[in-house]
Amino acid sequence: MEIVFSVNQEIDGGFVAECLSHDIFTEGDSWDELRANVQEAVNAFFYDSTRPDRIRLHLVRDEVLACA
Predict the structure, then answer these.
(1) Across residues 21-26, what is the average pLDDT?
(2) Largest CA distance in the chain
(3) Going edge to edge, which strands form the sheet with 15-19?
């Protein structure tokens, strides 16, 4: 089983991750911290059931370009 997190970068540079299939949310000040926090949150959520085999972090980048 694989679960997917949608990851957005905040204005302050941190990251927020939201699982698309379960009620799991977490954040981190850096990408490495976010990765660790996602794994910790997933382990806590699935503490009494089968954990997923893979966790996919999907970074969403929202950019606005000015038209000339």
Answers:
(1) 97
(2) 56
(3) 25-28, 15-19, 2-9, 54-60
In the chain, domain spans: 2-60
Report the alpha-carbon distance of residue 41 to residue 27 in Å, rounded. 10
The answer for residues whose C-beta is within 8 angstroms of residue 53's C-beta and 6 or more apart is 1, 2
pTM, rounded to two decimals: 0.87
Q: How many helices (H) and strands (E) does the chain have?
A: 1, 4
pLDDT at 21: 96
Contact, 24 vs 37, CB < 8 A?
no
Mean pLDDT of 26-33: 97
Q: What is the pLDDT of residues 32-44, one digit of tens each?
A: 999 999 999 999 9
β-pair partners for 53: none
